[in-house]
Write a structure and sequence with these properties.
Layout: H1 2-9, H2 13-21, H3 36-43, H4 45-63, H5 65-68, H6 75-87, H7 100-110, H8 112-129, H9 132-147, H10 153-169, H11 171-179
């Protein structure tokens, strides 16, 4: 199941959508990342929303595998395979995204109410900061601390591991935030298409 989850996570939706419909490899534009945020930035809202849903779905399907196979394994553990696949995808030269959306998808399958809380927290932070990266970085420690109130130590442990991993993956964003050069989201959902980097 972990291998299947990894392969699901390895589906590079942003890369495939970009090359198939826009004739662009989004890893060559913007931040060079293949995830949702760079898809919004480079390809626009339509592609960005589709990639966001696909990346979330990868995590949800992966974490649902124990239920589908009727095996007593915690879904969060299997979901880590999808996160690993999304970050280091075998189908895209191991150059993937930062795993925020896929991690959210894992949580959606495991604990939908807590998922809704986390999404709400992220959206509030995004409205205040207008930076996806900063919103993610701030939200993650809050999510870990909030998970303590649920009383599920596996959820808290994996949330803590994912928080450290995702923040580490945002290290270049942190440098840009400090330098004041990090991209901001315009008012409303998504980025305007990056015409400057068009082919």
């Amino acid at each position: 199941m972990f291998i299947i989850a990894y392969l699901l996570g390895s589906i590079p939706s942003g890369v495939w959508i970009g090359t198939k419909f826009y004739k662009k490899d989004i890893r060559q534009f913007g931040s060079g990342n293949s995830g949702t945020t760079n898809t919004f930035r480079v390809l626009g809202k339509t592609a960005g929303i589709f990639v966001l849903l696909a990346d979330v779905l990868k995590g949800t399907l992966a974490a649902s595998l124990p239920l589908l196979f009727d095996l007593p394994i915690n879904p969060m553990v299997i979901g880590l395979g999808a996160v690993l696949g999304h970050t280091y995808p075998v189908f895209a030269q191991f150059k993937g995204g930062k795993a925020v959306a896929t991690s959210a998808g894992v949580l959606l399958a495991y604990n939908p109410p807590f998922f809704i809380f986390c999404v709400g927290l992220f959206l509030v932070l995004l409205f205040l900061t207008r930076m996806v990266s900063l919103s993610s970085i701030i939200a993650l420690p809050i999510i870990v601390l909030s998970s303590l109130f649920i009383g599920d130590w596996i959820l808290t442990l994996i949330a803590f591991i994912l928080a450290l991993f995702i923040i580490y993956r945002h290290r270049e964003n942190i440098k840009r935030i400090r330098n004041g050069t990090e991209s901001k989201v315009p008012f409303g959902l998504g980025y305007k298409k990056d015409k400057k980097n068009s082919l």
